[in-house]
Amino acid sequence: MLLSSIPTPIEHDWRHIENISIFESNESLLAVPNTQNLKQLPIYFDSNVNHAINICVARQSVIQKLQQAADLLPKHLGILVLDAWRSSAVQKALQEKIGDNIKTIYPHLSVDEQQQLLSDFVAPVRADFISPHLTGGSVDITLFNRETNEWLDMGAGFDEPTERSHTHFYEDQPTHPACQNRRLLYSVMNLVGFSNLPTEWWHFDYGNSLWAYYNQKSHAIYGAAHWDVVDHQ
To answer: Residue 1: is its pLDDT beyond 80?
Structure first.
């Protein structure tokens, strides 16, 4: 597969994204399956984030497209899903967790600057705002080696709130393994219809308002979704 470079990012503004119309498709949330080249690891549950569930679930079409993307990869690689649908309670917990990380990493920034940086990595938590993960249309993913189960080098840790996490960061370092690995992940996901959040190499969207924003669609097809843990036990 010929890997093209990752384009210079277009900054997102949550105020624009929340104004996009939603024509709800009513697609179901389903558990992400574990196949040979598509697997899940609910990372927030494993790291004891408050209210996180022990499974990755997403809209039906999102899962189908993830499998299509995985099938485009070289045979020794697969896609690992770390998070997908996320409740508002988990979103709030992550805002606090990553906000604390930012305060530790960037103590020299003002409170306003820290909040601006936080908005690059975590969507707002408000009663009148539908965050991308709440729709079941967002997935946080990485690539893994099917023979060793090791994650590929992406050049920045998952949820790392630094510029190294920006998807295009390694484009001026084409010999760095992370440059080619990011290009590969970006390419297969783009080919099957996902958009990428430019500040996070791991975050991809389909069907929600963030996807509509980056694909210049007139509307989104996924609004807020609900996964009832009790019903699925």
So the answer is: no
